[in-house]
Design brief:
Elements: E1 2-4, E2 16-17, E3 24-45, E4 49-54, H1 66-71, E5 75-79, E6 88-89, E7 105-113, E8 127-138, H2 152-171
Antiparallel strand pairs: 1-3, 2-8, 3-6, 3-7, 3-8, 4-5, 4-7
Length: 172
């Protein structure tokens, strides 16, 4: 986990906010995961959140601006009124503008206070949030469409051996 916090000198300390720039938390996972929900433990002002899904670390190439970060995302979305002490389930809510992030799997997730470049909108700032938890779901590939070949001669030989064993046991 990495934290991008531009300015933490004001109140509240250690909150993710969009007061003097934009603060985000970058989460890295070994396998692709879907971001299902988040729970805020504290908010001040609005409780608007922006999220982005990424295949690679969007900051790995050096100095980038927020528009470049958003453009490199698999998907971005912003949500308003995410509340406090109750899981905010992304699938149950619509993004401020555009589509949400449901059914999106990624190795990197960027979560922070509302940032207008993540959804094309231009709304007010003043979000101060402390995240308590996030919930994810690991990507599991679907292999049900791939038939498995069973060699017929080996299966017949094994079945025949079983029958011979039953007949021998019955005679003994």
């Amino acid at each position: 986990m990495q934290l991008w916090n531009r300015n933490d000198s004001g109140s509240p300390s250690h909150a993710v906010d969009n007061t003097s720039g934009f603060d985000f938390i970058l989460l890295e996972f070994l396998q692709p995961v879907e971001l299902l929900s988040l729970t805020n433990s504290w908010t001040s002002g609005y409780s608007w959140v922006s999220v982005g899904a990424f295949a690679a670390n969007p900051f790995a190439g050096g100095s980038v601006n927020w528009q470049q970060v958003a453009n490199s995302a698999i998907q971005t979305a912003s949500y308003k009124d995410t509340g406090i002490n109750t899981p905010y389930v992304f699938a149950n809510n619509s993004s401020i503008e555009g589509t949400g992030i449901t059914s999106t799997f990624a190795n990197y997730w960027l979560i922070g206070a509302y940032n207008p470049v993540f959804n094309g909108g231009n709304y007010g700032l003043g979000d101060n949030i402390k995240f308590a938890s996030i919930t994810t779901k690991t990507f599991v590939p679907d292999n049900t469409d791939t038939p498995v070949q069973v060699p017929e001669p080996g299966t017949i030989a094994l079945f025949s051996l079983g029958l011979i064993g039953l007949l021998y046991r019955r005679r003994a």
